Amino acid sequence: MVQSGIPLGTSFFPLNFEVKKSARELFAEPSMPATFAGLTERSLFHEPWWLDITTGGNWALAVVENDGEVIAEMPYSLHRKGLWRISTQPPLTRTLGPVIKPAKKPTDQEWRRRIGIAGELIAKLPSCAVVQQTLDTRIAEAVAFALQGFTVSASFTLKIPPGRSEEHVWTDMRANTRNVIRRAAERLTAREMHDADRFVDFYDANLERRKRGNVYGSRMMRELLGEVLKRKAGMLLGAFAADGSLAAEIALVWDKTTMYYLLSSRAEDSHSGSIALLLWIAIRAARERDLTFDFDGIPNMNLLTFLSGFGGTPAQRLMVERIRGDYAVMRTIRRSARRYVTGEA
């Protein structure tokens, strides 16, 4: 039997999780905090409050100005690793990279202007043993990094674009994925969670049962999710069993263009479709807000098999990295030693 709050609808199964406002309504609210203030291309992950929390305040901004106007910026983290100062992607920060204000009168050579400005930003980065960032999928200035001695590599995510009907999105999913969602909806009730502490407590407890720790840090995660909820820059969804216990959860964050699947966790004894159920609700919420849904990375084939069942389209993310010679030698020695100790050599 379908639990209260998740009734079956028509044949394409539109779960009745209410989304109260569209993206345009949400960001037009006078009471809405200036979460997305700044340069128009800035993503959620470029926002100062996000970087303050994820780096512990250890970040800075490379800026390019023209006639006193900021036309480009690039945030970067700064911390020490032993003797070395390094700049890497902050935790839970999916993408960064240059943010460049469009020309007032773009021409066919706009790409050349943007690469030149990106080169100016790169020149303003501090001297570090390592500089590494994953670029937003909309950033096309990776060539500027390659010309400055960075290695450029590719990773991938899956996206579902806005503008399609709910029925279209549902029928684009694999049949077995739809069936898993139906079965989960018969046993679980999905609803929004408003307590970041409860979310992190459940997340940590599930890791502890697997004898693992929170790699992001529980304290940072609590602060970040609490601020996300406060700024209305995301939401937490939970799947609850008939006895009211929490079976699974996911965290979502968004900016003006994209909703990101950020975190998830489920109890070992929960229904195997609990995360799929919550993802379907999240995809519907993104569609209602007129946002792209980003599944946020494909680290392995198992996850690709699972996520591709939702019908997304692959999108490329470029990672740029520049490593100083002495640090590269140290890293190679450490990796070789680790393989020797573990018997992998």
UniProtKB/TrEMBL annotation:
Extract the SUPFAM superfamilies matched here.
Acyl-CoA N-acyltransferases (Nat) (SSF55729)
Question: What InterPro entries does UniProt report for this protein, alphabetically?
Answer: Acyl_CoA_acyltransferase, BioF2-like_GNAT_dom
Residue ranges constituting the BioF2-like acetyltransferase domain according to the UniProt record = 174-295
Q: What is this protein called?
A: BioF2-like acetyltransferase domain-containing protein
The organism's taxonomic lineage, starting at the top: Bacteria, Pseudomonadati, Pseudomonadota, Betaproteobacteria, Burkholderiales
Domain of life, source organism: Bacteria
- Gene source species: Caballeronia telluris
